[in-house]
Amino acid sequence: MKEQFEQWVARLQISEAGQKIIEKVRSSEPSRRVGGGSKNVSGRYPSRKMGVTIQFESHRVELPIIYQLEHDEDVLEFYDQPPQIKLDYQASNGRRLGVLHTPDLFVIRTNSAGWEECKTEQDLKKLAEKNPNRYFYSEEDNQWHCPPGEFYANQFGLYYRIRSDREINWVLQRNLQFLEDYYRSESLVVEEAIDQSLLAIVSFQPGITLAELLNQSIGAKSDDIYILIIQEQIYIDLNASPLAEPERCLIFRDEQTASAYRLMVEQPSVNLPAISPVVNIVTGTTVSWDGKGLNIIHVGETEVILGAENNQLIELKKAIFENLVRQGKITSLQTPEKTAISTESWQRFGQASPEDQAEALERYKIIEPYLNGHLPENETIPARTIRDWKAKYLTAIQKYGCGYIGLLSHRSVKGNRQRKLPEDTLAIMERFILEDYETLKQKRMWEVHAALVRACEQSGVIAPSYKAFTKEVQRRTGYEQTKKRQGRRAAYQHESFYWELAITTPRHGDRPFEIGHIDHTELDVELVCSRTGRNLGRPWATFLVDAYSRRLLAVYLTFDSPSYRSCLMVLRICVKRHGRLPQIVVVDNGAEFHSVYFETLLATFECTKKQRPPAKARFGSVCERLFGTSNTQFVHTLLANTQITRNVRQVTKSVNPKNQAVWTLGLLYEYLCAWAYEVYDTDEHPAFFQSPRDAFAAGMAIGGSRVHRMIPYDENFQILTLPTTSEVKAKVQVGRGVKINSIYYWSNSFRDPQIENTSVQIRYDPFNIGIAYAFVRGQWVECISQYYAELQGRSEKELKLASIELRKRQQNHAQQSKVSAKKLAEFLASVEAQEALLEQRSYYNRRTIFSHFPDLCRAISAKYRSHSKACHTEKIQQSCREVKQIVLKLHNQGEYPSEARVSEIMTHPGYLRYKQVRAVLNETRREIGV
Hints:
Layout: H1 2-12, H2 16-27, E1 42-47, E2 52-56, H3 62-71, E3 75-80, E4 85-90, E5 96-101, E6 105-109, E7 113-119, H4 121-130, E8 136-138, E9 143-145, H5 147-154, E10 159-164, H6 170-183, H7 192-204, E11 208-209, H8 210-214, H9 222-230, E12 250-251, H10 255-266, E13 286-289, E14 292-299, E15 303-307, E16 313-317, H11 318-327, E17 330-332, H12 343-351, H13 354-371, H14 383-400, H15 423-437, H16 445-459, H17 466-475, H18 479-486, H19 488-491, E18 515-522, E19 527-528, E20 535-537, E21 540-546, E22 552-558, H20 564-578, E23 584-587, H21 596-604, E24 608-611, H22 621-633, H23 657-660, H24 665-682, H25 692-703, H26 715-720, E25 729-731, E26 738-740, E27 743-746, E28 759-765, E29 768-776, E30 779-785, H27 788-791, H28 796-808, H29 821-829, H30 831-842, H31 846-852, H32 854-892, H33 899-905, H34 915-927
Parallel strand pairs: 7-10, 18-23, 23-24
Antiparallel strand pairs: 1-2, 1-24, 3-6, 4-5, 6-7, 8-9, 11-12, 13-14, 13-17, 14-15, 15-16, 18-21, 19-20, 21-22, 25-28, 26-27, 27-30, 28-29, 29-30
Helix pairs in contact: 15-16, 28-29, 28-30, 31-32, 32-34
């Protein structure tokens, strides 16, 4: 790689300074972690060309540019967020500015290299208006330019380019996303028989549509066709028609055949047609010849017969007739065109209310007989009114080209529509609304109006009434007013929907497993412990939804609040059920989605991560809507659902969901999965008029099964879904193994002398602390905890909560005190630990639980005291046996067994303070005669 880079530099004769800049870009990490801000969808794209994930700040500008760079053969390398460069330019006020600027990309091409900045056309126009010396549009090359950036780059023989969304071909973008799974695999093969059959069909029927090719009964699957497309064995113009619409896609053997086909279909013939575009040579056409009107009576292969007004027949050879037509001697008698309706008339028509239109139609029905010269009998409308309507109708024909417009009354614009209050009053009222009402103080309208009246009296201005003031405030009600009074998040529900007026990529994808949404919600139901029956609170559900079919791919339920564990588990369940992951995963800005474990897993399986803007629920409407559906269709039908708690003052002890709870976590999870995977999955969805399962199956038939992207649910995948520690590695200690979260884990692989005292990569299961994994000699091996029986099945959160509880009981309050694995295992095995964990899970303190379950708490405390006393007695007995062994050992070694020497060797030297242990020490020394 280094040698190739040096050859590239030498070939382009890059200066030494330019070479240093390029080397710095290539060796540096991205200068910053991008965020999409309040509007953009940001994320990470797993680049196969670069072997790393590439950040993007907008999935409508930067991500499409990244797709182009990924598939552009001229692009050798590209890097996101390169080191900052300094831009010097003159501001619009004449002041000299020097700003540090981080371009979006640095691109190394075959014959050039430089920085590229991606922005929307709309943003560029605003920036050019604000800073014309930094951005401007050139009419000469129809490109945007950044003079300070270009000046900086030219010093080093590089380039600086502005790229806007105007240059993005969205059909190509859809096709690149559609085929990306196939581009990412290099060993795709189509059976030879199917290959030859497809090539024969395409060669014999150039321009056959993809839909027709998919319906050919030759045993070919959609995957086979897409593989041949990316291998360029058959040709389709990816810039012209989307593969997701197979009836529009024309397929050819190669690009040359496609070009020839277009020329034949689109280009007109050079020879003049035999039939004149002026005269339609068919029976019944009226033509003019030498000033006389004739009718075409018969058109044969060689003759044309014309009929005159006196029933005279004229026979002409067809070639002679066509020649006369070409010479213009025979022409068609065209019906005079009607007067075109003007644009102004359409505007007046659009301004008319339904009542105005009904009234105009009634007027036209009345004057229609007069316009045709047929005077009606017994007319009740005054003649003067008839003449007025008729005159308006005829005037409108001359002025607008449509008489109906003259009959419209437009009553809504009649009268004096000017405001009655003086301009001074309107100005001061506007000022009070802006400065006093639309503020974060959220004053009431009555208070602001009172201050307005006082200000008007002091200024000698007419004060508006309270009714007029409230109408003026309500006229401004909406997003901006709510934002000023309550903030951006409160105003979000008033924000107008973003309608994409230009065709880009479909927001829900073109096929199943293209886009998946992950999100969490706290279910509206109270649960109880399966062992004790105590209330444990509300569970958290994590959904993975396929955006294309709205199918629930995976569901996970836990008491833990949203964390990386839930994210990894829902992805693990998805692979277990479907054998694959979505190509694009859309998430919010929660901390769990920024986890290294989560991002590493997505990058490993080449999944693009997109982060929707914070507090913008509409970007995740697929998941958010499904949360509501799960509550209304399933959760709200359960006992102890929490709907009533929305009106807290109405909740009494008898109807409190906490007292009605009967569902356990395991039972609820079982039924939630049954609803998600069977009931909801087979029910008709209003967006498709078919069930999510049927929409999924139909999409897979067109999009392809993509078997090469399947992920085996084996031990290796399960290990990849496990997190590691902050140090990533742990040292293999002789005879003890690796230490993870204060616990030692052992594997027989650690007996190898070459492995001892080396650091190995580690992973642990957050849902089973009893086991862990270590990467030894190129493979992951399972390690067993030294306290496997006590720790198996304990979650990481339980371990953490138990550690905190145990630390509170330690006699030593030193800052560096740690909890040993042995003490922790003993504590977890005790009954009181279960009580502490239940308290933490249910978010109730001990006093609250004691007030509800006094007898049970006393029984638990008594049992714990008995257990603690038994443990204490056992430890004293162990210390007595240990002291006796130490004294005998020291004596055999010829060393005096003093109290200080014995305490140095003891596991728990503090137990020497107990008289039973000291008695054993003295007795043993007497026995050996010292």
